[in-house]
Amino acid sequence: MRWAVIVLLAVAGCVGAEPEAQPLPVVGGVAAFVVTAQPVLTARCANPSCHGNAARPLSLFAVHRHRMDSADTFLDAPLTGAEERHNFLQASAFLLGVDRAAHSLLLTQPLAVRAGGDGHAGVEVFADTEDFDYRRLRAWAATALGEEEGP
Fold first, then answer.
1. pLDDT by residue (tens digit) across 126-149?
2. Cα separation of 111 and 134, whole Å?
3. CA-CA distance, 80 to 137, in Å (whole number)?
4. pTM greater than 0.85 (yes/no)
5. CA distances from 147 to 17, 18, 120, 140 (A)
6. Which helix (H) or strand (E) holds 81?
7. CA-to-CA distance for 72 and 61, rounded, in angstroms?
C-alpha cells in the first residue's frame, strides 16, 4: 500500500499545469491565406503522397486531391470554407513560437539545404529563397506574424 501511495505521489508530481494556449497568427485571416498561400501549398505540398494526407502533421485539402468529405476526393469541386479554414490553421500552427517568418518550419523545411533550409526528406520543394512560390508563402507568413518589411 505504501508503494502505491509513493507511485501515486510521484506521478502526480509529474503532471504539471497545462501549457497556456498560444493564439494562432491571424493577421489577414483565412481570406488572405486562400489568395496568397493556399495556391502555393496546393501546387507544391498537397500531393496525396505528401501533405495531402490526413496522417501528416501538415495535412492539406486541395481540389482534385484529399478532401474533408471523401466523396469529393479527386473531384473538381471547390474547397469548402471548412477545408480552407483547416488549411489555414494547419499552416498557421507552423508559425507558432517564431519571431520571423523565415525561421518557421513552414519555410525552412521545404527550402534546399544549400539555400539555408533544413531539407525535406530528400526533396527540394524550393531551390532558393528567390523562388516565386517561396516568396509568396513567405509574404503570407510574414503578414500573418505582423512582421515589418525587411529580411
1. 999 999 999 999 999 999 998 875
2. 8
3. 21
4. no
5. 31, 29, 25, 10
6. helix 81-93
7. 10
